[in-house]
Amino acid sequence: YERFPELKFKYKNREFWCRGYYVDTAGKNAVKIANYIRHQLDEDKYGDQITMMGKL
Q1: CA distances from 16 to 12, 22, 29, 32, 53 (A)
Q2: Residue 7 to residues 1, 4, 18, 22: CA-CA distances in angstroms?
Q3: How far apart are CA 25 and CA 10, in angstroms?
Q4: Residue of 20, 25, 27 whose CA lies nearest to 43
Q5: Is 1 part of the annotated catalytic residue set?
Q6: What are the boundaries of each domain within the chain?
Q7: d(CA 20, CA 32)
Q8: So what's the pLDDT on residue 46?
Q9: 51/12 Cα distance (integer angstroms)
């Protein structure tokens, strides 16, 4: 949070990086990489919805 202090308000004391990881070469399979990124964005949206439900 030292570099981007404004993110502390959004993520509070949670970890900024996810637990998992994905390693592959960029030129190997662009479709596979795009699907992985799309899936990660869906997970983030789901997590945000759960967080918002807890604040209601």
Answers
A1: 9, 16, 27, 24, 20
A2: 7, 6, 15, 23
A3: 31
A4: 20
A5: no
A6: 19-55
A7: 17
A8: 65
A9: 12
Tokens of 19: 């637990």
pLDDT value of position 18: 58
| Element of type H or E holding 10 | helix 7-11
Which residue is catalytic, options 11, 22, 36, 46? 36
d(CA 3, CA 42): 26
Q: Rounded to 5, what percent of the chain is helix, strand, coil?
A: 55, 0, 45
pLDDT in tens, 3-49: 777 777 776 666 555 566 666 566 667 788 788 877 877 777 766 66
User: CA–CA distance from 24 to each of 4, 11, 16, 30, 53 (Å)?
Assistant: 28, 28, 22, 10, 35
